[in-house]
Amino acid sequence: MSDDFVFDGHIVFPPLGTDKKLGLKRGLAAENATYVGRDKEVTFTKDDMALHVHDGKTPGGRLHFRLSET
User: How far is Cα 64 from Cα 53, in angstroms, rounded to an integer?
Assistant: First the structure.
């Protein structure tokens, strides 16, 4: 991973030198299972620590990434 990108709730665009906030909807997996997010919306489920990408029509979106337990 490049040193230019650090995720701490902000995305930094180094070529432009601008700082933009990234907000994610978050909740429990059971809540997300029935949620239909906008196209390309990303949600975070707190209980299973997973990111879901939505398409505007599928309840729960598509599981994209889950943090492994350590």
Answer: 6
Bridging pattern class, strands 39-45 and 25-27: parallel
Q: 21-38 pLDDT, tens per residue?
A: 666 788 889 999 999 988
User: CATH: 3.30.930.10, 2.10.10.30, 2.40.37.10, 3.40.50.300. Which one for 24-66?
Assistant: 2.10.10.30
Please give the Cα distance from 31 to 44 (Å, whole number). Answer: 11
Tell which residue, 35, 32, 61, has the closest CA to residue 45.
Answer: 32
Distance CA 15, CA 13 (A): 6
> What's the whole-model pTM score?
0.66
Residue 53, amino acid = V
Q: What's the rounded Cα separation, in Å, for the pair 35 and 43?
A: 10
